[in-house]
Write a structure and sequence with these properties.
114 residues, seven-stranded mixed β-sheet, single chain, four-stranded antiparallel β-sheet, mainly beta
């Protein structure tokens, strides 16, 4: 399984970005897709997850601002991020599991700054 994350960038506070995570290889559309982030202080945090059936879970810090979704026909997960704050600045990683092993995308940088 290969995961390709994209969509990061520099945005002003209050702005929006949409991250994408495209999966290829031995993809199982029933598997959970997750987003994590690593802050500049090197804190590694769970952000959001979505099951193959569309059930979602969010970190308290992003609830109401971020929305995770997926398109199983494209083997792609998305993270719509609205009302971004400087504290959301981080390297964002997508993750899934396959045959009991975790797989990670390469990370996409999100910087929220005026």
């Amino acid at each position: 399984v290969q995961l390709q994350a994209s969509g990061g960038g520099l945005v002003q506070p209050g702005g929006s970005l949409r991250l994408s995570c495209a999966a290829s290889g031995s993809v199982d559309s029933g598997k959970v897709m997750r987003w994590f982030r690593q802050t500049p202080e090197k804190q590694f945090e769970f952000v959001a997850s979505i099951t193959g059936g569309g059930q979602t879970n969010y970190a308290d810090s992003v609830k109401g601002r971020f929305t995770i979704s997926r398109d199983n026909t494209k083997n792609t997960a998305y993270l719509q991020m609205n009302s971004l704050k400087p504290d959301d600045t981080a390297l964002y990683y997508c993750n899934t599991d396959h045959l009991g092993s975790p797989y990670w995308g390469q990370g996409t940088q999100v910087t929220v700054s005026s």
